Here is the input.
Amino acid sequence: MGPRIGTSGTRIGVNPPPVGPFLQSGVGVVGTALQSGVDVGRLSAIDWRLALIPLISGAIGYATNWVGIRLLFHPVGFVGVRVPGLREVARLLPRKLQQIPGVSEGRLGWEGIIPSRAAKMGSISVDKGISRIGSGREFYERFDPDAIAAHVLETVDGDVEALTDELMRERHPRLWRNTPPLLREVVYTRVRRQLPAVVERVTDGIGEHIDDLFDVKLMVIRRFEERPELLNRMFLEVGDRELDFIIRSGFLIGTPLGVLTVPLFVLIGEWWVLPVAGIFVGYTTNWIAIKLIFNPVEERRIGPFKLQGLFIRRQQEVARVYAEIIADELITLANVADELLCGPRGDRTRELIEDALWPVVDDAVGPARPLVRLATGVPEYDALQAAVASKGVEYATEPLEDPEFNRERSDAIRVLFRDRMQEMPPDEYAEVLRSAFEEDEWLLILIGAALGFVAGWLQLLVVTAL
Amino acid sequence: MSDRESRDPPDRDPPHRDRSGRHDRADRSNRRDRRGRRGERDRRGRRDRAGRDRPRSGGRPPPGWIGWSAGDTAELARLAARVAWRYTEHSLRARVRTAGRVARAAARAESPGELVAETEAILAEEVERFGTALARERRADGRSPDGERAGERPADGSLADGLLGDGLLANGGPTAGEHTRGRSGGRGRRAGRETDRWGVPTDGGPTARSLRDRGARLLAESAETDRGDRGEPVHPAYARIVEEIAADEARILRLLATEGPQPSVDVRDGGLVPLTTDLIAAGLSMIGNRAGCRREERTSAYLNNLQRLGLVWFSEEPVAELKRYQVVEAQPDVLEARERARRPKIDRRSVHLTPFGVDFCRVCLPVEVIADGAMGAYELPDDGESPGDGDGPSRDG
Here is the structure.
């Protein structure tokens, strides 16, 4: 090896790099440094400097992967400047370039790839992951409508008087003031007597029509749009080992690649070899790392070694972590209730609750209903019923947001996700998380290449400055 | 029967189940009457005495009347009379008649429940009687030589006024009569003849002459200068359009009205020949899902209908926020279309309301229409006039 480098070394001496106008102007320092290094010309000196290349190459791989992963997750929210005219130009650019965060909004800067794709990734994670694990109906059933009903009743029961008073005072101050106390008691009793049936009717009704009331995908998209950092957390926690591996592998893969760069550098003997090799190293380390995480899907044995995608191998553990995040943050009772009542299909749920609550007013007023109705006026009477219903919605959501109760109910979802995911065939399982960012992998790889290019210059400086 | 009953939604008023059909009818007519301003004042003036606290005597209440004493029953009778009075004030004769009937019923009634039912029945009948009288009157009006529009008749504070004041009935004279009669269980009378909004009979189908007549009337109407409201308060086409859209389509309109233009994409195949593309799938969007349509698979057909009615238009341009395409392009139908293409290419398009659609939503839907975003590109000055929307006031609002 020594002599070869020696000869190559002399070759550098023999063919000094084509300095040219470019080198003399912009990178003159480097050029002269190289030449002077060669002028010193002794094997040992060249040897020593070239030996640095693999090491620096490893460092490049490590750094590019580290930075690449930082750029994958950070910052949450766009950081950068608006470039006048870029927005108009952006429409003409190739789609790939438009995918770079900020470009389509006419801004130059960066946003973590994952947070900037939160809505899309949420949508895909439902199509490829969550919906394979369970349907909206199943989730609702796991929450156990009976337990929900019991909890709502428990919370509301003590408030029946206050609720009724508030409502009647608000809508019908005079009527309620003029209602004999005994009659009020009757109304309270009737309301209280009706409540269990009403709550049951609501929970049953929701269960029966859940497909018309609730869309898992829209809920997940909405959640991720509101809180992109949630998606970050999901990837960071689920893939912590893999992400560490990507960074470490930068060094492990970068070093051998550096070894390969040495003869290239020596043979070609041009100054640009290092930056170009930097691109190559940055690109390849990221590419290989991603491939190793997900491939091969099925376990393969080569002699004593077992080969399987790192992520795939950890299915049991990943399933546990994934299930935890989903159950704690995504498919929670509070979120589902919010989607049911405030989502695009919320009017349907409210209608359902109103339908269930109407009879309460009627029953509370008793057989005098037609007269009360005529006395208060039909629209007012109907408005009263609507008010009861919207109050009912208010009162129903409060207990559903109770964190204690949420935790209790999320257990069922966690178990569901963990078990189903642990049993998934490897190829389906691999898709659950990968599909979400498969389309953006190229961006991660490209970041590696770009960073590698920069690092290549640094490498050149280091090699020549010494 | 009992089986059917048990499946029925719980009745709001079990003791009067057999009468429910009838009192529903009365309710509906009353609901219209409610719009009359007179009723409002009356209600306020009288209700203060209606539910006053009364000393309770110790009579045993009949079952279902827990807490109702004999004193309360008397009060109830008085309330009933007042209600009857108020609802029948369209004519003195009817008022006297009704009040008398209610009073007789109150004297006869053995229980409050019976009294309530009785009052209800009387009211229903009165309203019904009035409804048919109204229908007759309007038909006569339709043929009247002066051709005055029905909706512009001077308000006389009657139930008829209440009915006519209701936008629903402003345009279709005969429909008012038909509805009332239809709901009143059908007294065996034939439905009224079809007439246009000026009351000109059209049942023979349009002829060149009748159409010309109508056109002339339109022009004459538009030539009138002393009208304060600058023409029709609402576009005359809306009544028909409301009838012609599906419930899911109303949801789509609501989505477009409240959230503005929606992104849609076409998937094309670049193929092997440069510069040419084949269309693989067009108009893929999340509109059906985001609107919460019950029949999501019909979304395209819904949009066709809305376009046919001139409420919606499909733009070749993308929506302003390109980021919104991310999610659309990740939907299974788009991905599947991409797979079918050799060199997939996605064209970004959008779906907007037309200005006509925006005004329609403002008038006909109980939603807050976002004034600025809903139409999208139609706001550009050179495009502003393109669709035939005759309703000026909406745009400067």
